[in-house]
Design brief:
With 303 residues, the protein is α/β, with parallel strands linked by helices. The protein has a domain at 8-217: Aldolase class I (TIM Barrel, Alpha-Beta Barrel), CATH 3.20.20. It has helices at 25-37, 56-68, 85-97, 116-130, 143-146, 152-161, 176-185, 199-204, 219-227, 234-248, 253-264, 282-294, and strands spanning 8-11, 41-42, 103-105, 137-141, 166-171, 190-193, 209-211. Helix 3 packs across helix 4.
Length: 303
Amino acid sequence: MSSSHMSGVLAPVVTPFTPQLEPDRERFTRHCRWLLSQNCGLAVFGTNSEANSLSVDERMQLLDGLMDAGLDASRMMPGTGCSAFPDTVRLTKHAIEHGVGGVLMLPPFYYKNVSDEGVYRSFSKVIEEVGDDRLRIYLYNFPQMSAVPLGIELVARLREAFPSMVVGMKDSSGDKENLGKVMGAFPGFAMFAGSEALLLENMRVGGAGCISATANVNPKAIDALFQNWESKRADELQAAVNRVRHVVQQFTLVPALKTILSHYGSDPEWNRLRPPLVELAEDDAKRLVTELDAVGYRLESGG
């Protein structure tokens, strides 16, 4: 894999909100700084960031805040994919100007059953309008949410047309066989698993790492697995992160992550979500904490 590609563990950074449900820039920056200190990259404005509940301007202002705070842009992969390609272009240009390591790009996701031709034209139009050789796109394949799958034939066409710009993918399909198929088709492609549960599997087929919701709350342990995936401890480390993941994924992920940050970080300000998402019910929040305690979870746990 090219050294110019991003790799490792990244978190789709959860977005805190003020009582007025405006993005809490200070708390967001503080969480991003902590993640970087745990050797976790920043896939800001991903699914678990409530990105599609944020306006274009809000995303840009939050990214500006990270830059103002001196955080390392090369460790950032902002989500820039929107349904309207002018919004995607605007967000992507803004991110590139800050020197980010790459952008994570959903396909346009409102219209369903669109053709590969239509999706190809969308990505092509964005690349043309951005018009910057520094552009590095990591395709975001999440058909359960977008209902627009990014199949191998489409990826091959994009790779052939834009080999220096379409450099990787986050695959959140949950299909571990797809990891091997994509890596077999595109050696050197920077493939990120969408969950740490598939991190070891992904690394063993030549992948680049993972971009996972629970990296927000378990970054040290997940990075330990990434760093030691070739060691004799790899399967043991995978089992350890799986135990935490198994607990968390029983609940709706975004409110669960915010419950964890609120409880274990002693910061109730985290426990706000923008509609249509709502916080966990009290009984679910208690059960989440009880089950995490039972597997020995700590907010800064790790190998």
